């Protein structure tokens, strides 16, 4: 099944003016965009986002580079199977299948939020295909002993969370607002594009399942952290929102300790750096792409 026609009913093509492409994976049909030519930049989103998060990056950077942005299975314009475990390790497997089917090489991979462990795990497996890494607020280590993560885990595994996520579309409607330091940076027009991909209970299972994986996949995150040596000598650019209430600057300090050679730029914004500091972070990626290592 191709979902593009269905999507046009709500998709704002003035904000997202790209050709919709689809690839059949073992787990379902994955939507992606593939714009421009040249060195490859692969964008990997978290929750409750989709490739829309990177729309301005694709528009600008595709003038000089080949920009590819996926929607994880269960997100955005991709298929939303009713039977799907939705764990980050499954999304990582899907991403690896996608990379191998397109035979992508020399990749600059861009990751954020849950897209961090998803994208970095796939990059670790495909380290010979990875040229460099751009990272927004994320993590890649065990979460089960983190008090903030434990608190979220307790809530999200409760009956009330199931009601809020599946019946009220709580994640894109309300949680996404908390990710903004300045709420006025999230316009109603843009917010609708994050809400509409999840119109009913079954389509929202992906949001609930990945939320449960914050602590549920803790051991898997730690396994990736221990294997990060396959990537850590590559060039890294870290673009960090310092007003993120959950993935805080404590996380950044752990990254800086592990990746002392990384180029780090901090921004006075929340979790969704891409929405609040769009122009500035695009410029940083452009500079990073031009550096000759």
From TrEMBL:
Residue span, AB hydrolase-1 domain: 40-277
GO terms, molecular function: epoxide hydrolase activity
InterPro entries, alphabetized: AB_hydrolase_1 (IPR000073), AB_hydrolase_fold (IPR029058), Haloalkane_dehalogenase (IPR051340)
Entry keyword annotation includes ATP-binding: no
The keyword Transcription is assigned to this record: no
Highest taxon, organism lineage: Bacteria
Protein's UniProt name: Alpha/beta fold hydrolase
Organism from which the protein derives: Aequorivita antarctica
């Amino acid at each position: 099944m191709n979902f593009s026609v269905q999507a046009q009913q709500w998709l704002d093509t003035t904000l997202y003016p790209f050709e919709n492409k689809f690839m059949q994976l073992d787990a379902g049909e994955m939507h992606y965009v593939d714009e421009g030519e040249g060195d490859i930049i692969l964008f990997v989103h978290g929750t409750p986002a989709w490739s829309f998060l990177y729309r301005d990056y694709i528009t600008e950077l595709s003038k000089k580079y080949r920009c590819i942005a996926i929607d994880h299975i269960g997100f955005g314009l991709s298929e939303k199977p009713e039977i799907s475990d939705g764990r980050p390790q499954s999304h990582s497997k899907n991403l690896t299948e996608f990379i191998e089917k397109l035979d992508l090489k020399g990749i600059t991979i861009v990751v954020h939020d849950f897209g961090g462990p998803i994208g970095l795990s796939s990059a670790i497996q495909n380290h010979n295909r990875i040229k460099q890494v751009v990272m927004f607020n994320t993590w890649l280590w065990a979460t089960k002993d983190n008090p903030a993560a434990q608190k979220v885990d307790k809530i999200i595994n409760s009956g009330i969370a199931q009601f809020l996520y599946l019946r009220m579309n709580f994640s894109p409607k309300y949680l996404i607002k908390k990710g903004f330091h300045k709420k006025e940076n999230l316009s109603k027009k843009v917010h609708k594009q994050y809400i509409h991909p999840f119109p009913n209970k079954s389509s929202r299972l992906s949001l609930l399942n990945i939320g449960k994986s914050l602590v549920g996949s803790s051991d898997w995150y730690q396994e990736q952290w221990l294997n990060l040596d396959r990537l850590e000598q590559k060039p890294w650019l870290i673009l960090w929102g310092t007003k993120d209430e959950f993935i805080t600057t404590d996380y950044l300090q752990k990254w800086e300790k592990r990746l002392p050679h990384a180029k780090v730029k901090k921004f006075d914004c929340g979790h969704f750096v891409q929405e609040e500091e769009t122009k500035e972070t695009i410029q940083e990626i452009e500079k990073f792409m031009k550096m000759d290592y």
